[in-house]
Backbone:
């Protein structure tokens, strides 16, 4: 019985022990928080002593009285006093929301809504904890407890940036111990959120880290967790990265929260500077000795900060004994100067200054071969090609370059020219039988570098049989007649591939005219040959396409003229006088889909319609025929204009191939003298009454063919005697250099002028066409009706 009870007793004892440990830990945290709070209050009391000339006791009483009067706790008032005195980055972060910023979680915040009053306390308390922390691990714990947990964050990591671009975990809180051990070091080049913030030198926010696909400490596949990585640096130099984790998807944060996080990162930078985890850099004296020991030119650069503490330039602190400026200037011309003063051309985008700034900020070294370096001497740019190496040592940047000599530079250019031009040079000594090939010629002819060069006399063995005669003529001209020559032939490579090659050669003769050697070059012209073949085929196809296009344009023009001839006499129906004008495009390829129709229906109403099919050519012309005839047939049903356009839209959408068009459909009742009309994306008609021209109020209506289900409004207009109504297509007003609104206003002016200066309706239309300022050579239709 006693044995059976023992495990329960042990379990009870272990539970009590765990509870005791948790209680002690909580008491330690509370003690630390109280200590940080006391430190903040003591700092505020010190400010009151200095500003108000009070004793410490009086300052304590004054602080308590002010807090009670302001309905604040002493800790909150202490934070406000420190903010007012410091006016630093933390003060800015603890200020009010920007008026245009959103609130927490993305909800809008009113202009008069203040920030959470505990923000200042949290940030200043975190600052006190960081300043009193013994190492970076303690800093991480203080950050999470005082500043980040109230924001909903559950974990934080502080990364120290190495000189090679690596990241070392300097401290963490909220992550499992095993995670911290596995992520204690991140090699250079591994993509992580902290690495991205380091390289881009900006804060990187991830609403859901799983969507970014970047691994990081404490993150598991499938976790929908938010992350932010913020560079921690001072004076333009990034010492590390502050990474914060949320247990849920993170919504966009307001600028206020972003400023708080950036202010905390700045505190972390001071901690990394005070408690360096990475090996300390070389002392200045040793760095100078190292530079002086190098034979290549060396610049030791120090950051030059502006009055706000931001990086503005780099001071050339030292030049080594072997320094030779690539522009020919002595050491004294650049020593002690600012980098952009000595080398102003380095300020270009992607130039030398940007590389130096990136190395100084991230610690990631930069190396480049054949980089152009430019100096401005007496306003004349001088450029040299050099191999460049830039590295950071503490707060100092070391830049080394090696200018390529002219011989190496020319040889390198020649190699690149041969590679780009697919050219290989050769020289064959006919006296000693020695043959010299350039390195690129072996790969050009499909031979390994260890193969023996092919003599000119053996070229026929490697030539396509159809080109053998051309090679024989080439060799006879070169070797027997001693004349420079060239030939193009098909070379049969050992790998079975046939290439089109051009060989150019010239003889080298002695003083007596005897042939000593031959030198020249082979060039692979296969791409050029096949390009010429393709161009010939393309020319034939283009000529055929042009013939087909011309035939289609002629057919479209004939179809358009057959349905709507350019000239049309006046039409009279009941009390209406109708005049129409149609002006086709001058170019056959611009034949469009403009159309009009005027017909008396069986109901004794007059159908007036005008439209414009999108596009040009045979498709637009045939689309115009379909819509015009369909509308005429539908109008015999007696339906109103809105219903007719609804049906016509179904025709355009379902019974044609991708035809869209604008249109106006109007029905005039001669008994009531009422004009009912509807529009499908077309310009509204113009009414001229009492010599005043104005547009009819616009009604809604989507262009035909855009959607299968479209709604069209119907308007009504009562015509009076001598009223003139104009309907037109965009070819009458459209200009390349003016907006449609401007052109429409000009049309109203011309219409009024035509009314005042001309007589008949046909003359008024002629006046419109004469004084319209369209310049697009598009089809144009105009219908004018006048009530007598």
Residues:
């Amino acid at each position: 019985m006693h044995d059976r009870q023992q495990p329960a007793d042990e379990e009870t004892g272990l539970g009590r022990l765990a509870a005791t440990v948790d209680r002690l830990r909580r008491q330690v945290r509370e003690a630390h928080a109280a200590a940080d709070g006391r430190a903040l209050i003591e700092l505020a009391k010190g400010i009151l002593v200095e500003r108000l000339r009070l004793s410490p006791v009086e300052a304590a009483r004054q602080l308590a009285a002010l807090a009670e009067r302001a309905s604040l706790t002493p800790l909150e008032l202490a934070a406000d006093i420190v903010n007012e005195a410091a006016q630093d980055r933390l003060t800015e972060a603890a200020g009010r929301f920007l008026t245009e910023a959103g609130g927490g979680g993305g909800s809008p915040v009113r202009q008069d809504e203040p920030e959470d009053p505990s923000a200042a306390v949290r940030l200043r308390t975190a600052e006190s904890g960081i300043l009193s922390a013994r190492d970076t691990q303690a800093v991480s714990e203080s950050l999470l407890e005082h500043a980040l947990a109230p924001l909903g964050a559950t974990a934080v990591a502080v990364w120290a940036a190495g000189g090679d671009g690596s990241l070392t975990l300097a401290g963490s809180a909220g992550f499992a111990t095993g995670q911290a051990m596995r992520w204690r070091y991140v090699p250079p080049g591994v993509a992580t959120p902290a690495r991205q913030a380091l390289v881009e030198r900006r804060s990187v926010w991830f609403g859901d880290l799983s969507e970014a696909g970047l691994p990081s400490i404490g993150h598991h596949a499938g976790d929908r967790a938010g992350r932010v990585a913020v560079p921690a640096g001072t004076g333009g130099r990034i010492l590390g990265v502050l990474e914060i984790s949320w247990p849920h998807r993170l919504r966009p944060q307001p600028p206020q929260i972003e400023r708080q996080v950036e202010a905390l990162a700045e505190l972390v930078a001071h901690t990394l500077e005070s408690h360096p985890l990475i090996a300390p850099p070389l002392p200045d004296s040793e760095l100078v000795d190292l530079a002086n020991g190098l034979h290549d030119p060396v610049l030791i650069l120090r950051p030059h900060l502006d009055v706000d503490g931001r990086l503005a330039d780099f001071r050339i602190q030292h030049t080594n004994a072997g320094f030779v400026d690539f522009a020919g200037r002595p050491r004294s011309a650049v020593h002690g100067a600012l980098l952009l003063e000595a080398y102003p051309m380095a300020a270009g985008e992607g130039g030398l200054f940007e590389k130096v700034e990136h190395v100084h900020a991230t610690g990631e070294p930069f190396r480049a071969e054949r980089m152009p370096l430019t100096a401005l001497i007496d306003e004349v740019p001088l450029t040299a090609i050099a191999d460049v190496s830039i590295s950071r040592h503490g707060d100092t940047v070391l830049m080394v370059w090696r200018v390529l000599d002219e011989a190496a530079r020319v040889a390198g250019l020649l190699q690149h020219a041969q590679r780009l031009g697919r050219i290989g040079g050769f020289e064959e000594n006919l006296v000693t039988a020695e043959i010299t090939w350039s390195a690129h010629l072996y790969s050009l002819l499909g031979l390994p570098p260890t193969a023996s060069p092919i003599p000119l006399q053996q070229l026929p063995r490697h030539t396509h049989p159809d080109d053998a005669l051309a090679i024989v003529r080439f060799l006879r001209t070169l070797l027997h007649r001693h004349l420079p020559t060239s030939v193009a032939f098909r070379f049969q490579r050992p790998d079975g591939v046939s290439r089109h090659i051009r060989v150019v050669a010239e003889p080298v003769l002695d003083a007596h005219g005897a042939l000593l050697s031959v030198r020249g070059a082979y060039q692979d012209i296969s791409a050029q040959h096949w390009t010429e073949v393709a161009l010939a085929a393309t020319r034939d196809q283009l000529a055929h396409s042009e013939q087909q296009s011309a035939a289609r344009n002629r057919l479209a023009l004939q179809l358009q003229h057959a349905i709507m001839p350019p000239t049309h006499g006046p039409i009279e129906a009941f009390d209406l006088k109708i005049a129409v004008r149609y002006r086709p495009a001058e170019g056959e390829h611009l034949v469009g889909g403009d159309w009009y129709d005027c017909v008396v229906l069986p109901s004794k109403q007059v159908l007036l319609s005008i439209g414009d099919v999108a596009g040009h050519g045979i498709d637009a012309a045939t689309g115009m025929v379909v819509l015009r005839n369909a509308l005429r047939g539908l109008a015999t049903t007696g339906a109103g204009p809105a219903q007719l356009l609804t049906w016509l839209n179904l025709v355009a959408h379902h019974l044609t191939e991708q035809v869209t068009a604008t249109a106006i459909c109007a029905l005039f009742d001669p008994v009531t003298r009422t004009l009912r009309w509807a529009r499908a994306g077309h310009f509204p008609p113009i009414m001229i009454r009492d010599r005043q021209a104005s547009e009819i109020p616009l009604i809604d209506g989507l262009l035909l063919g855009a959607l299968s289900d479209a709604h069209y409004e119907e308007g009504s207009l009562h015509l009076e005697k001598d009223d003139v109504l104009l309907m037109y297509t965009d070819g009458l007003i459209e200009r390349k250099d003016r907006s449609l609104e401007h052109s429409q206003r000009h049309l109203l002016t011309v219409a009024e002028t035509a009314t005042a200066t001309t007589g008949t309706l046909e003359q008024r239309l002629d006046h419109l066409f004469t004084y319209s300022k369209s310049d697009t050579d598009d089809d144009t239709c105009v219908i004018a009706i006048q009530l007598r």
Observations:
- The mean pLDDT is 80.
